[in-house]
Specification:
Helix content: 10-25%
Strand order of the largest sheet: 17-18-19-20-21-22
Radius of gyration: 18 Å
Low-confidence stretches: none
Largest sheet: 6 strands, antiparallel, barrel
Structural class: mainly beta
Number of strands: 22
Shape: globular
Number of helices: 3
CATH superfamily of the largest domain: endopeptidase domain like (from Nostoc punctiforme)
Distance between the termini: 30 Å
Number of domains: 2
Oligomer: single chain
Strand content: over 45%
CATH class of the largest domain: Alpha Beta
Order of helices and strands: EEEEEEEEEEEEEHEEHHEEEEEEE
CATH topology of the largest domain: endopeptidase fold (from Nostoc punctiforme)
Length: 238
Amino acid sequence: MHKVIIPLAPMRISPSHKAEMSHELLYGETVELLDTIKEWAEVSCTDYEYRGWILADAIEPCKDEKAEKRFLYSETGIIDSAGSRMSIPRGSILGSENILEGDVHPSIDFDSELVISLAKQYLNAPYRWGGRSPFGIDCSGLTQMVFTLCGIQIPRDASQQATYGQSVAFIQEAQSGDLAFFGDSEDSITHVGIIIHNNEIIHASGRVRIDKIDHQGIYNSDTKKYSHKLRLIKSLKN
């Protein structure tokens, strides 16, 4: 098993800088090394099913596999890495590293208010396809990171996340912290967000933002139009 040793490691669909970025690994995340081609490494995430290509020098063999995982909850943190300071983003994972600045502790048990609080900390983060940090994040990256920090590991993509949890029949029955999924059809889920209070949803669309939601979908307060068609709602509460 290997771990990421840089703040952010773009994962691409093929071993080329020109290839599409499909995912982003954060400091401390672990992967299985599958193959290498020149300076590229094909890897598979160990905590959830996702694979792709990253630069080989972004990872190294794990030295402390038994160390307790500690997550960074503040937007950024600073660690002592090989005698020098390194800034890392929220959601990074630390083992025995020395944290110089930042709020670090094991993942917190699920709580709907905590889900909302963490999601709001990403407000106004720019949309970035494949991103998972406060500096750029996509819709399913937002939901995955928030629930990971709340002690629930869910898959990477919206269509995969839609297979988790218990279905909620009507929007009126949805509760804060539930996931809402959107798309042209139930077989084509392309967007996800987190339901919060007052018939609102927080999601990444252009930027992480809060909009109104009803049985039709997301109503964009800027354009005065529906931007996403609601398909299903899932509750991940135990």
